[in-house]
Specification:
By secondary structure, the protein is an alpha+beta fold. The protein has one domain: 3-Layer(aba) Sandwich (Glutaredoxin). The chain is 28% helix and 30% strand. The chain is built from five helices and nine strands; from the N terminus they run E-E-E-H-H-E-H-E-H-E-E-E-E-H. The strands form two sheets. The chain has a seven-stranded mixed sheet with strand order 2-1-5-4-3-8-9. Strands 6-7 form a two-stranded antiparallel sheet. Helix 3 links the parallel strand 4 and strand 5. The protein is globular. It starts with 12 loop residues before the first strand and ends with a helix.
Length: 155
């Protein structure tokens, strides 16, 4: 299932790295950069997370909150945050229900082997809960800068 720009962002509830449950409704009123990534503490995912970390001050000045989601456990997220001093929320989607709702739990292929996994994707959700932009099959270098530039030109 693909999510279109200008559609209502699928609601969700999930546990974040501090073992508390949060829903999308809990953060309405801010711009949300909701990014999906395959796995904690892997090379591309670490670079992407550190890019968000390093851009946090600039993004917060745009009334924007960063939320990362992967199928990893809360314990894995806690280690990832501690290892890299991440300054934003990571949600655990172990049952892949959020990934599925956003259309990012997909069949992938590596060396001819097919498997299910997270397609690196980012959604920009406005303060009313409407998806204003989406990036699929994200390439990490320059991605956070692209998001920041988009937000600056659309607020």
């Amino acid at each position: 299932m693909s999510i279109d720009i200008l559609s209502v962002a699928p609601s969700f509830k999930a546990v974040h790295h501090l073992n508390e449950t949060i829903s999308l409704d809990d953060v309405k009123g801010k711009w949300i950069v909701l990014y999906f990534y395959p796995k904690d503490n892997t090379s591309g995912c670490t670079v992407e997370a550190c890019d968000f970390r390093d851009s946090m001050e600039s993004l917060q000045s745009l009334n924007t909150m960063i939320i990362g989601i992967s199928p990893d456990s809360v314990k894995s997220h806690q280690k990832f945050i501690n290892d890299h001093q991440l300054n934003f929320m990571l949600l655990s989607d172990e049952d892949k229900s959020i990934c599925t709702a956003y259309g990012v739990w997909v069949e992938k292929s590596m060396y001819g082997r097919k498997y299910m996994g997270v397609e690196r994707s980012t959604f920009i959700i406005d303060p009313q809960g409407i998806i204003q932009q989406k990036y699929s099959k994200v390439k990490v270098p320059g991605h956070v800068s692209e998001i920041s530039n988009w937000l600056k030109s659309h607020q």
